[in-house]
Design the sequence.
């Protein structure tokens, strides 16, 4: 009964697995587009839609993880799921992203509030933006999951080895970047973000000092308008003293995180952070390309190499040992002939196969390609006739 | 009317129609089915000796019946193929060139065809025809000879300088094909177990045995050139035993053996050497056992490697 249920469930499970794979491919495309949109200066509308798409993907993967985890829990194989079945990837690439990355952004977009940016009050806003954006690379871990589904090599051993080495490489790269970002934030390592913050703070201080002297303030503001291209809006006690662009322009080209806000002595300043965000996007795309190329390199260069030097010769030897009429030699590439596998292959070629050939010749029997099962199928037909 | 021959024929037909045998030539199919019957005798006896098949017969009798039916079925397909091979594909124009007086080609063909039919009568020689026929049908000789003549190495030297054949490459090929067809003649001089297809696999014979057989053959086949008969019979002598064996005989021995071991392969596994290359490499290591000329094997191994055969 249970078996029939399992069989009935198989197409549905296969459909869900295909859906997950499709979602992984799409989320990678979405991640790339999210960064590319920043660099290409796409409308905020499109960028917001991409952010929302990212949120729904993360939600989807979170549900996927929780479902898998639940079933693993029911089957008492949580440990196996989290380790051997790579549930840790499902976890890292879902819940943390939903909570720390796409969730707050989506909430900001959907509610119109500044929850994501509100963190700026607690931590350095730019560092928060950076950390959030960097966290997105956790999605790249999902490449590992896709990789396991690509059956470019017939040998399960090669598949497993190459999948493992890919998983290790991608994980190390992703975690290195995450830890580096985390430590550079906590250890107050000065970088582009610090320079941006200090410049904005200095601008705010400079203007704040002049608020008591209107003539000096106007002069200072005029100077800053010319010299600080990142200064977008200056408000004093609620009135806008300066705005570089129209409101339409802001709403079309400034997404959450593209600008920062500082308030001091009744003075409110908005700064353009798109240059910094672009820098982060460039880094993100670079990292994305690196990860994709590393995976492609394993798939296209290392996999065939592994097959050539390990699994193919083993496969040929196994067939030669197992099948009576399989007498093909192992191809021994000159440059790998000292490898253990090929040393073994040489013994197989030079000792085993000639011995097998002589034995077959002495027995004088050729290998039969008919087996009894095929004939037992024929015999009843004979009986009927 | 005794229904047993018809039942035997029907059973054999069923076996022959197995798709696993489709790519094989008639003699190979016959070899396969014989092997199958012998290997699975214990499982088949209860069913085949039942009232629906061959009631009251012992396994040996059943096997004899089946063998007869098998030979009949095989001959239906084999004889036209062999006749075409001998009458149309093998040119006997070389025959006049390898001896002092001219010989009529048609007479050569006729005698070769009659002799081949004799070979088909005896299970041992019939079985030994598998290799030569497979090798001829698959054009092994022509392929390798062409490359050998391009390279003008050992094989070319042995054929043209040592054996002194003043023949075109095509004629040498035909001569080797004819030699291969005569090779199983040695089995006519051995004792066999007629009737059940059980036979001793072709083994090397002593030069003295070949010499005696040759005398007898010369008396029986007076049209075919003695040099050709000599090659056919001496191809069963180890080159280690007699270094004077004609190059054509040595080549006939090698290619007959290749034909015997030949198995059509759709796609070679990645990581494996090609079938011919593998075969020549393995056979090089067993050259003493088979009595082959190692230098010829080396040359063919090189050719197979270079051409991905």
Sequence:
């Amino acid at each position: 009964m249970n078996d029939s249920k399992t069989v009935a469930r198989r197409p549905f499970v296969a459909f869900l697995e295909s859906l997950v794979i499709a979602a992984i491919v799409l989320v990678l495309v979405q991640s790339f587009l999210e960064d590319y949109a920043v660099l290409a200066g796409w409308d905020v509308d499109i960028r917001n839609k991409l952010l929302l798409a990212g949120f729904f993907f993360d939600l989807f993967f979170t549900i996927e993880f929780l479902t898998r985890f639940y079933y693993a829990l029911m089957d008492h194989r949580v440990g196996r799921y989290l380790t051997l079945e790579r549930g840790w990837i499902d976890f890292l690439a879902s819940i943390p992203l939903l909570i720390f990355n796409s969730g707050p952004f989506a909430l900001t977009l959907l509610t119109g509030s500044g929850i994501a940016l509100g963190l700026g009050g607690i931590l350095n806003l730019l560092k928060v933006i950076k950390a959030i954006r960097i966290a997105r690379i956790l999605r790249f871990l999902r490449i590992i999951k896709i990789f396991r589904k690509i059956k470019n090599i017939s040998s399960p051993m090669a598949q497993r080895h190459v999948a493992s080495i890919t998983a290790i490489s991608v994980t190390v790269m992703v975690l290195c970047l995450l830890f580096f970002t985390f430590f550079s934030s906590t250890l107050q390592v000065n970088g582009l973000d610090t320079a941006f913050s200090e410049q904005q703070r200095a601008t705010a201080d400079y203007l704040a000092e002049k608020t008591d002297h209107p003539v000096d303030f106007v002069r200072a503001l005029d100077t800053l308008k010319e010299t600080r291209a990142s200064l977008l809006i200056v408000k004093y006690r609620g009135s806008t003293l300066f705005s570089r662009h129209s409101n339409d322009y802001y709403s079309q080209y400034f997404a959450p995180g593209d600008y920062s806000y500082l308030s001091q002595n009744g003075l409110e300043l908005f700064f353009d952070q798109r240059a910094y965000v672009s820098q982060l996007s460039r880094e993100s795309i670079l990292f994305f390309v690196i990860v994709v190329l590393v995976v492609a390199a394993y798939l296209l260069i290392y996999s065939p190499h592994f097959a050539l030097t390990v699994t193919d010769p083993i496969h040929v030897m196994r067939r030669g040992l197992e099948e009576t009429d399989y007498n093909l030699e192992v191809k021994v590439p000159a440059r790998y002939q000292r490898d253990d596998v090929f040393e073994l292959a040489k013994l197989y070629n030079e000792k085993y196969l000639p011995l097998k050939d002589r034995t077959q010749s002495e027995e004088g029997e050729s290998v039969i390609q008919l087996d009894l099962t095929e004939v037992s199928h024929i015999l009843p037909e004979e009986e009927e006739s | 009317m005794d229904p047993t021959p018809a039942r035997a024929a029907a059973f054999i037909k069923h076996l022959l129609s197995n798709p696993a045998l489709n790519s094989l030539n008639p003699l190979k199919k016959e070899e396969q089915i014989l092997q199958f019957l012998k290997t699975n005798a214990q499982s088949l006896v209860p069913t085949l000796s039942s009232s629906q098949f061959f009631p009251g017969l012992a396994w040996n009798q059943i096997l004899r019946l089946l063998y007869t039916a098998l030979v009949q079925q095989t001959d239906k397909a084999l004889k036209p193929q062999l006749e075409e091979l001998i009458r149309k594909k093998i040119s006997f124009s070389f025959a006049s060139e390898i001896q002092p007086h001219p010989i009529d080609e048609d007479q050569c063909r006729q005698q070769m065809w009659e002799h081949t039919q004799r070979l088909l009568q005896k299970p041992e020689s019939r079985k030994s025809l598998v290799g030569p026929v497979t090798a001829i049908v698959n054009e092994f000789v022509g392929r390798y000879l062409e490359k050998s003549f391009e390279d003008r190495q050992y094989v070319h030297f042995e054929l043209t300088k040592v054996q002194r054949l003043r023949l075109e490459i095509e004629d040498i090929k035909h001569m080797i094909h004819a030699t291969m067809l005569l090779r199983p003649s040695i089995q006519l001089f051995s004792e066999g177990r007629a009737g059940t297809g059980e036979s001793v696999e072709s083994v090397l014979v002593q030069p003295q045995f070949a010499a005696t057989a040759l005398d007898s053959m010369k008396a029986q086949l007076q049209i075919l050139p003695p040099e050709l008969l000599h090659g056919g019979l001496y191809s069963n002598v180890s080159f280690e035993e007699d270094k004077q064996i004609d190059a054509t005989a040595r080549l006939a021995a090698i290619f007959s053996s290749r034909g015997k071991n030949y198995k059509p392969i759709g796609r070679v596994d990645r990581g494996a050497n090609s079938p011919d290359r593998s075969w020549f490499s393995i056979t090089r290591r067993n050259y003493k056992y088979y009595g082959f000329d190692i230098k010829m094997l080396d040359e063919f191994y090189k050719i197979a490697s270079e051409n991905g055969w």
